[in-house]
């Protein structure tokens, strides 16, 4: 059976409720999340074994994050402890024409200040078959980027499949390096990349091309450029997200295996309860799909898209849905009838 | 003036708030409801006299249910007391592509364990003109089914009009009998049946036919079959419910009097605040409409559909709207302007 | 730099939460608002200096209203103190086909019982360049109407620009005078009027004409009638509001300067978080637009419409958005993407 | 069996939660209460038949007050409808050294503007045995005082027992009359008066004497003065209330029947959940006690004191306790053990 | 290292908030607890390995209970799944003179309907050193009592230490057997009993003696009677609980090892945030104390009393405190200073 | 009239509600506070002019802090903007024997990273008469300590009175300097010091002496040592705080002017709603008292103690009480009666 290791930061998320603006909030809903953690939660919900690697402070707030991992049955045996603080992000939930706002307060966090020796990657990867990381970790600090590189190399040596969600965040990358200085080496080990073509190009130092994802003829050559730059690459996927408004999204996806383009039907997602983490839900679905339906790539993609859609109906960072719920929706039932 | 008696179970409803999943809930909103109670509430709101027949335990939770009846001006003089517990249903409110979930915890309830002698139907029906029951009560236990039969027979003898909402729930009917063993006799006394043609066929032991409710030509003969099986039948109605998503319903309705098909315009219902109880709102509206507009069947149906639509905007099981509000909407104003 | 004075009543607003009906509410959300105050808040948010003139009681509830003004950086140096009570309005927030309900409880309020001498208009208007009032103030009591007339005359003498939002409320005007007895003189001093043509005609004693706002040919002459009746008039604007449901509005606007009709694109607004105060948001946006873009009337109108649309996503009476947010939407971005 | 009629104002109570100050409150808890209504609730809880006489506006807020009466099984058949508004009182709940604050907003309420003909006292008192009023009603307006006098006279003529809780509120009595101009006639018909000796003296036009309620020797003559001024008087009672802090009260009581002083043990009440309405709980307990234990005056007093103590543990205006709970405490068990 | 197995029912706890009565509650706080689960949580918090044995239904509510176990790091590998429902208890939290109320709704629960084969005790006890059960389990149903006996016998055979909290609940024991028919055999295997002397006597079929726990002379012989009836007994302990009011408890404890009486200082506990589960906190503390300080029985008892006191400050069923917090209080610091 | 400048950090305070532990919290109450800000709020509430000097980030969270200042009428014209984040402290509110817990997350805050040039002290102190700082600011970072020294020197040069609350926090002072290396110079300019004798000794590099504050004979010489070390010192004050439990404090205070000891009566404070900021309330009261009653030192001290006691009843960091409320309590009325 597969065991998937994911590596990244878990943060305290402080969000306003009922579409209130920050200035109106007298309380913040407190939960815990982060891209790579969210992927691990998805996979745990689908019944896979996971191990989440992060570093949290030895205080009550760090302990809360750890309890969240345990409750969700995400493996936590290799969490490192220390540092000064748990990173935070503030979330103001938009509606209609008003978009949501994220204010990061994650600098100087325990993971951002990780030190060599915090993680024994050889030991961590024992028994693991897959390693997932994202473009956020190398963006938060130089030491986190270094750890990420160590991890990717160790995973590569041990023969794990490696996936990366590019996750470009312009408000990060403040420590003096550009993505194009850091990401190419990291991505060179990856078997699966999730991201826009232009984001990938940007991170790999190429010029943007503004691709048309509905044009299945031009897509292969655009994706092929990535295969050339990333010698281990087997699959590239892109989440298609047409934002009608903060409350109405249209979600699709494209998967390419170097030979063929797979395209998922666009689904209407309205209303949006919470769209944060929907990309992570896609990623989690894609990993599950590739592991489970790997001879049926269309099915793998459809599973990812269905998982992504369902995430928009779930409050919080991660996708609290079961395998059965995603499968039911994947096979066409999205009418939202009462189950009783 | 009419006095309508309804008979069924009132439950504690424990629902998550703000579309949370069960596992996310630290609190449950507590309210009280049940199909036949909800019908009584609708009728009381429209100004009719009602009497709700049920059995509740002699503890604080039973007392809460009784206070709810009183507050809503539903007649409660013939409520029976005793048994071990008030039935419960848990409700997780869905959104968009994720449907709502109901978890029943109603076995062994006071009504499910009702005993002969709990209800003196002759006395209960004194001064009453209408008796309403639904397919839920004979589904919860053999003794409840027996009481239901006693009630229907007594109502028949005393010349009351009898209506039934078929309300098939596959998770009930666990006590060893099938609907087709129990419902035919019960329905044989009914003057009004609300339900899908296929549900009615199933309960009466006929094969399903998957009717097309837009085809007004084929409908009469399909409904006519019910008139043949239920000798007292005067009206059959079907709620049309096209579920675009958990947050968007399209609601219509059909009424047939053995001669003519009446069809209501489909109305868009979005967003859905709470769709539980919308069928009961239709039923309540239909009874009101038949009593009030009985020479104008189209109007009776339109009233039922308008009531059903408005229910979707009301939190909780029952339809907290006034006669004026339903009439206003029935006559076309559904623009939701501010009244000030 | 401009300083805008607005005059009117600030009320305690008690609203039900999560679309509950009044009878379901165990708590009321408490906030403070009122048409002319809301305009001042908009302008303060856009960086302009404002002064809000009102009268509040010398008790804790009046003090809360004053603290709200201060927090929002609305000028409060000329607030009058005294009288018995702060006016209240109760708000039940609708959804879908069920409209919101407002119950006024504002009679006998401090402003309704204002006395001569409460406001020294000459002193108040020192350094001011614009005076805004609305048709609500002369509707609440004779003494408020008198103060309004005093204010308008003083502003006129001192050469301020004067704007009026007609804001007809049929549940007010209970003190014995009709709008047509009071409004013509008040409006005769105004440079800017916001309102429907028919509301303006009604208030000025003319018959309604049910104009077609999409017919740009017939509009000029209909608006011209107002220019004839109001000798100081420079601009008339109308908010176009097509109510699909309580949760879905389509918002546009028309501006006329006596020469040319400017028409804004209709924007879809769904879902509606709170539509109360959206007219005030339009008014605030229009004043800002006229002050800032006054050679570009289309831009001024577009700003007003964008502000109005955004208000529908904000809980509470006033428009808690920044200049940048309105400008971003005005220039076309209404996709509500996450900002991070 | 007894039927008790009480007459007075029911208000919307808006209170801050968790000891917040007014300025901190973003929500107000909304409930309904008022002295004479609270007495009726107590009596209904003890199983007696009641009828509450008041006037409420014909709007949604008035309807909420009526639904509260119905839920609590208080008789409401003789409620008058009309007028402009339901009175309000705002409550800031103190703690420890900080006392609670009440801000009245009840002028111009439906009851304050009651008109002759609103109440047909003869009809109202049919079948009734007891009439209860309090010193609040004649304090709110001249027309309310007039109605109170009409009621008292009618009750006297029809031979009902009449009780009055003096309830002096210095912030009321603003309509131009002093208590001593109004209360003597009203009290002359009363059989039971609840109040401090000094309050009674003040209302009857006598000088205050600052009595020592522990001195059972001096008390009889001080109370006897009341018997002289009120020819129908049979019982006077005083609630003893030693306020250690807002969170800690010591409660006792004195009852005098013109012959003998009865004194109840002082009980410690801490913490105080809500002390508003504790005097009404005493009054309700006293009426019940006099009706039920009338040969055992000590028991009647003890019941009143026990009811008063329990009220301090109940949130809201009225005493939501059962007969059994008061009796259990009256007979000594105040240890607050878990019942399971 | 020790591994402690506990066996019993976990229930959904539905409690009113802020001292509201049941009838006032619009929401219930939802948590999960039960005597033997609470003991396991205490021990897990102190760093010991635990395994909790229970049976939960295979529905969402059962899944919530399981997630709670996992989050709290209580072992759940041997939980049985099946049956109809998770038991419930409703809790109304009292204050001052008004005690809390518990309404049980636990009949027909998954554990109450446990069947032979649900638990493989031999396997469960592998690696375990201690088994804890309580008098609640044999009280809920005959099959639960049978499972309890099987468990006790298996634990005995395998040489585990066995502890029992007598936990007499008069509202249970409804299935036709008396405690004295069931408990003697069960208790005969126990090494540690927690309970009142009179409760123990009652369960063992002896007459009550109303012991004076302050009289250290008479106590030994009273406890010795238990040693005679329970041949494996090593320690008996009694929680002393003097209830000043629902908000103020005085807590002490007695421990007897057959030779010597150990008595803990009475501690003042006020205010009481939540006293449910305080006995379980004592039990958990006692097991920890006996395992850790077993040559120092006074210390073991003091630890149990300190844990019990702290529990009163924690909302919910179980004792969310750390080893360090209990030890700090045990050694005298109960001043509740701010830690910063 | 006086204008008081205070300088320090304002933080976001995230606190659990209803005595929940961190791990139980699904929401955090969000407010803003900090020692020197709290002092400014107190003084603003008493009607004095204040100016609060701090640095906040240019993001939404910083804007929230600024809006809080404005609402509370604290001067904010000299606030500096910039840096990365607003400092945070998490607060778990204890009860009874369980103390409250504070977790600091304030490193790297905007104020901690203040740079030379952020504050133009000469300009800031124009028109000011008093400068207040506390021992927290020099504890957070070297640059903050430097700014503090600059401020103190500038205030000294300009002839302002300078006060300091020692406020020792052992969890701060992490940047490499000890209090005794930094505080002596800072304190040498102060006219008023608030703190324990031992804290003062520790910060000034002297050995602790464990003083007995009830022994008025030994106190003068102990305080005199401070006068020797701080040449500008005029008053030393100590808050006496006897912690019975987290919910029950006894509060007193000592003031010494170099000649005479003033001692305030100990007041019982129970229950404690929120004790954080009670020292700041004392400080604010003392500054007000010294400014207002400066010939009556006993009165100044009594005012400070009364303010401190009242703060314990107020939720949040700062003391939301009026001058009248403190004076009323100062003169003896602490019975917490209802004001109505």
Q: Mind explaining what this structure looks like?
A:
Chains A, B, C, D, E, F: Belongs to the carbohydrate kinase PfkB family. Six copies of one chain form a homohexamer. Chain A is α/β, with parallel strands linked by helices and 340 residues long. Chain A contains eleven helices and 15 strands. In chain A, strands 1, 4, 9, 10, 11, 12, 13, 14 and 15 form a nine-stranded mixed β-sheet that branches. The first copy, chain A, has a single domain, classed as UDP-N-acetylmuramoyl-L-alanine:D-glutamate ligase (3-Layer(aba) Sandwich). In chain A, helix 9 packs antiparallel against helix 10. At the B-C interface, strand 15 of B face strand 8 and strand 12 of C.
Largest interface (CB within 8 Å) is between: A-F, 28 and 28 residues
Helix-residue proportion of chain A: 25-40%
CATH superfamily of chain A: Ribokinase
Can you tell me the CATH topology of chain A? UDP-N-acetylmuramoyl-L-alanine:D-glutamate ligase
The total strand number of chain A stands at: 15
Contiguous low-pLDDT stretches of chain A (5 residues minimum) are none
Helix run count of chain A = 11
Please report the distance between the alpha carbons of the first and last residues of chain A.
34 Å
Order of helices and strands of chain A: EEEHEEHEEEHEHHEHEHHEEEEHHH
Task: Indicate the structural class of chain A.
Answer: alpha/beta
Shape of chain A: globular
What can be said about the biggest beta sheet of chain A?
9 strands, mixed
Compute the number of structural domains of chain A: 1
Protein name (chains A, B, C, D, E, F): 2-dehydro-3-deoxygluconokinase
Family (chains A, B, C, D, E, F): Belongs to the carbohydrate kinase PfkB family.
Organism (chains A, B, C, D, E, F): Tenacibaculum platacis
Pfam family, one (chains A, B, C, D, E, F): PfkB
